[in-house]
Prior knowledge:
Elements: H1 2-31, H2 34-60, H3 74-103, H4 113-140, H5 143-170, H6 175-203, H7 210-221, E1 228-237, E2 240-248, H8 255-272, E3 276-284, H9 303-314, H10 318-321, E4 323-331, E5 334-342, H11 349-359, E6 366-374
Amino acid sequence: MHNREAKRATYIAAWLDGLLGCAKVVVGVLVGSAALVADGIHSFSDLVTDGFVLAATHYGRQGPDHDHHYGHGRIETLATLLLGSVLIFVAGGIAWSSLQRLLGGTEIAAPGLWAMLLALAALLAKEWLFHYTMRIARRVKSKLLEANAWHSRSDVLSTAVVLVALIGAQFGFGWLDAVAAVIVGLLVGKVGWDLLWESARELVDTALPADAQQQMHQVALEVPGVEGVHDLRTRQSAGHAIVDLHVVVGPRISVSEAHEIGNEVSRRLRLAYPALSDVTFHIDPEDDAGEGDPSRFPGLPLRPEVTSALDARWNHHPAWRNLTHLELHYLDGKVSVALVIAGATDTSPQRLASQLKAQAEDIGWLGQVEVLYETRGASPH
């Protein structure tokens, strides 16, 4: 639905830009007005950008595929970059030729009533198109369509300058025509530069504003079970936002509970920020903010190595032979273990844990040792 609205607005803009461009260039040549011809070229440049918008809207709104896992939104960004480049090129040509005409002292004849009426009609039509396109751009949340709307507004401003120049030329101030053409060129260049700047910022993954990031941080912190949030990062793509963050939860909760807490963080962020297209969360059992990427540092042993090392120390101990479940907790740079033992003995869990810990004191990575007795028909205690 949104895609159809965006295309309809762009098709209307293309027809209007084509008609106005032809009319301005033809009338400008007939009456000898460089400003009106320049404004016509500006309208034709709008027609080129309309083509960019149509292509980018069609391909940029497609979903992810096997080659583009994050969708095709950057196509819109690239099209905006090309659009800005075209405008700057056109602006330079208009300004240079008009400046040469001004310095050369070329005589400008009175343009006549029809040229002024055409400029007025073009001004009103482009102002209507600006409001119409901007309304749809905000509804479908398309930065590219919004940029095209502002391009139409630049046409309004340039046509207003041309209209003033035509009126001045009608009353004998012919030099105003060349001055107006230079101003039009500068206006077109300004629009092109703005589009280049915004799309370039997006291509280099510029983050969302600081206040938006802080609000996202607060939304995540308010989820029950979240003990901290760090490494929250954002970037933008074709009017959408992407965020990834680390969520700190209790170190002893289950994997499934921790994952559901992360899911709830994702839900609340999407609810608070509808422009979010992708949320990635990483669950942390302890706050490791500022410690850097853990993949760059030596890791702790995983379960096969842990059980092998413990079996080498405890294989003759009755408690180890009666083991029913072994929990591993990677905390504070150590591997803490919790052993669930079938059947209770006269030895207290704390004393048994101390004995086991003493028999494995040569293992540098071993943290706390905890023992729980499991009796038939009862939970571990």
